[in-house]
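Q: Joint fold for the lines below.
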Amino acid sequence: MARMKFLCDADRCIECNACVTACKNENEVPWGINRRRVVTLNDGKPGERSISMACMHCTDAPCAAVCPTNVFYTTADAVVLHNKDLCIGCGYCFYACPFGAPQYPQVGNFGSRGKMDKCTYCAGGPEADGSKAEYEKYGANRLAEGKLPLCAEMCSTKSLLAGDGEVIAQIYKERVKTRGYGSGAWGWQTAYHETIAS
Amino acid sequence: MAKLLATIRFIAGALALAFIIATITPAPVSAQGGPTAATSEQQLMQQLKGGVIRGDVSIPDKKAANLIHPAGRNWQTFHTVTLKWVGGIAILGMLALLIIFYLWRGTMKIEGGRSGRNIVRFNAFERFVHWLTASTFVVLGITGLNISFGRALVLPWMGPEAFSTWSEWAKYSHNYLSFAFTIGVVLVFLIWIGQNFPTAADIEWLKAGGGMGKSHVKAPAYKFNAGQKLLYWFIVIGGAAMIISGYMLMFPFYYGMGVGDMELAEVFHGVVGMLFVALILAHIYLGTLGMEGAFESMSHGTVDINWAKEHHPLWVEEEMGPKGARTQPAE
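A: Joint structure:
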């Protein structure tokens, strides 16, 4: 099986936020929750870079390690998914996550958090693939249909890449070689303990 | 004339523009400064040293502006490794000590036997405050330990669904009972502060090992002995730390708290909480199994005069005058 990863080529991202919109639409993400967002560094200054960021589906994911009710599991494609039925909304996965991926709907008084929601790599959840229950809780399951996450599929500059880690790393390496520069595979070191030597 | 003025305006404007451009355009960073000269992940990771790479986002949730937060990995190690060791050593260590102490010393008897006469030690309000704090503490302690150890110890035999349901209710009780516990700690602080300042007798008490050894050394104490005073100040100060860090976790990201503040709050809450549980175990032991005649002070509010004279002689003198001058029996 492939080891699925995300890679955002920051030298191509134009901060159009279409990935964010596509994600929200494809997965019917509720108000106030962003499974994906675009972060701009040095906004308006020289060296400005935008990076589209979501759950990176880490190798030995920190969220899974700290979860008190053990809701996380890793699929054969190395996608990190979670079971919302078991989530108690404690918020620990957000504290541990290096990418700020977990989100919680506000469900009551104080800071009481509902079931955690995060990027599923468009791979749904533990329910049967493509079922209504799965869609309502987790959104689309494009992976089961043989498709990649929509955010990367519709990226207009092909900045955001999704797919097998080795394949997208190769694409990125070739780009860096051709154009002569590259600001790095953002988050790879933290998520996968490796970087792409360019 | 108008033409001349226009020319002057043009020249002045051009000069001003040239000046502005010259001032705001930064000098090139490096000779080969390619498009990525100022921003690369490697560079930012080296600069931040465990903090956060932060940018700007166009969505209202400003937490989302944290791009990469490698410190989450450190907190993960704390939560999954360090805290479990701290808690395990503190709580199991205390249990082991108490068992060893019990096997060595047994229940500390009232040496003079029961006199049959009682003296009021805690009035109804004091007992209410104690049990308010104590009962909420027990629930908070168990539900708190469930967050740290439940996954390893309880989940395997309860099963994921049942454990998740129990943990969710545990979380709600932990959150809501915190308010009652807060009131308890504040009242504990207020009603007993007068008797908890250190005195010379405390040093003697500590030197005598609290009179808890087998040699029956007398240890002087007023209403509270040095050990109880230490416990009192731990409950007040440690309780305050638990309450503040707990409310930070209950109201996450309020008032501009960042993810680093939340992690710090959890570290405090975890470590102090584990020590708290360990100390209260010792307190429960001494108040029940460890000492004859102690528990009734918090159940009925009265203690036997002989018990009081043995454990809190100076307090008995305060209450009854020297040598127990007032000798009318308790009704």
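Q: Anything notable?
A: Chain A touches chain B through 60 residues (CB under 8 Å). The two ends of chain A are 26 Å apart (CA to CA).
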